[in-house]
Amino acid sequence: MKAKKIAVIGAGVSGLGAIKSCLEEGLEPTCFEKGSDIGGLWRYEETPDTGRAGIYKSLTCNTSKEMTAFSDYPVPDHFPNYMHNSKMMEYLRMYARHFGLMQHIEFLAKVCSVRKRPDFSSSGQWDVVVEADGKQQSYIFDGVMICSGHYTEKHLPLQEFAGIQKFRGRYLHSWEYKQPDTFAGKRVVVIGIGNSGADVAGEISRVAEQVFLSTRRGAWIWNRVWDDGNPMDTALFTRYNRALQKLLPSFLINRWAEKKLNARFNHANYGLQAAHRIFSYQTVVSDDLPNHIVTGRVRMKPNVKEFTETSAIFEDGTEEKVDTVLFATGYTFSFPFLEDDLAILDSQHSMYKFVFPPQLEKPTLAFIGLLQPVGALIPTTELQSRWAVRVFQGLKKLPSETDMLAEINRRKTRMAKE
User: Fold this and answer.
1) How far is CA 238 from CA 66, 67, 179, 180, 375, in A?
2) What are the structural domains, with CATH classification, of the chain?
């Protein structure tokens, strides 16, 4: 029987795992990567192209190598527990070479469109148009795995900040931030306290005159190093702790974790008191932020109410002169190559287990890595890919559309309550 042909879009960590999963199940993958190299998010470029992930030069993984690695290819022993982006790239190159993945990747190949074929309801096949060397070429695939991630389309909510258009200083998104040198002597307000906001605020504060870190809801700050010097995730993300989590009510687990983090530094005293319980919202990993706050290099502020020509006015009524605004406001999902079909992707990105669109007639389209797990991404996407290719091969069957939609609604209800 002829092997099914699968299009893999993107050669980052999710795409590499997807290629390997296809090969393991006897499928024939072709990976289209718009850039000139593998790595996706982890490939540092001083001036990334629009539509590509942009990272800062110092970016270091927030999950340990022990938990981050692919299941069948450990990170070398001499690599640090928490890898800098350059080390992560080394590891990904080693992985790709070891499993012979490079021969299945077409570089500088931009996917222009992914459309259902006229006979999709029976064949489940897709028409995929790819542009390379200035020319477009059409392909027919039996399945598509979208591994392009969600750190490419920056979310810049200028409409939420009155006066930003008359602000005389510079404003930019964290996607554009590379290193702190250009902020020397500046008064900078960083808006948003996700992982990027915490990292960038701390790094800039070493050279800036003053950094203000503005947050609407506060944050719980985790440290990479846990008790006895062990990596945090290897100590906490165990089967034993997972079993306890299932047995104990959530308020007890939240109370324990909050008490543990407050024992290191009291979040309220540092202006970080969160308006949410610790496990009901994405947490932040930062080893340095408390030190920057306690030394005054970073000053915590509430949300910005409005901007004047030369200053930011915060919701507590305080006003600070600033000459640079850095928006660490995250990213939005963007799949410009997909046809506008609600059966493929609705406005809420409703997918069964974050992978399969529930209303598609044939389960031949899978989104890989389109989630933010509590722990490491690589093993999560690896499991997604293994499941997806087995569904493609007919070895696994999805629940009915009704059951999938019911599960999606249950998850949304649960998340809304939290």
Assistant:
1) 12, 10, 36, 37, 11
2) 5-152+332-417 (3.50.50.60), 156-329 (3.50.50.60)
Give the tokens for residue 73.
């290819």
Two tokens at 375?
């722990």
Which residue shows structure tokens 């700050």?
221
Q: In the chain, what is the straight-line distance between the N-terminal and C-terminal CA atoms, in Å? A: 49
7 has which bridge partners?
30, 144
Q: Which two tokens stand for residue 294?
A: 């306690």
Mean pLDDT within 372-382: 92
CA distances from 337 to 53, 128, 131, 303 (A): 17, 9, 12, 35
The whole-angstrom separation of Cα 253 and Cα 280 is 11
Reference 411, options 344, 331, 352; nearest CA is: 352
Residues 62, 82 contacting (CB under 8 angstroms): yes
pLDDT digits (tens, 9 = 90+) for 54-93: 899 999 999 999 999 999 999 999 999 999 999 999 999 9
Supply the DSSP symbol for 107.
Answer: E
Query: How much is the average pLDDT of 223-230?
Result: 95
Residue range 378-383: mean pLDDT, rounded: 97
Average of per-residue pLDDT across 142-156:
90
For residues 327-347, average pLDDT: 87
Euclidean distance between CA atoms 338 and 311, whole angstroms: 42
Which of 387, 385, 357 is CA-nearest to residue 369?
385
The torsion angles phi and psi of 406, rounded to 5 degrees, stand at -65, -40
pLDDT at 418 over 70: no
**Contacts of range 121-127, beta carbons closer than 8 Å, 24 or more positions apart:** 121/361, 121/362, 123/362, 124/361, 124/362, 124/363, 124/364, 125/364, 126/7, 126/364, 126/365
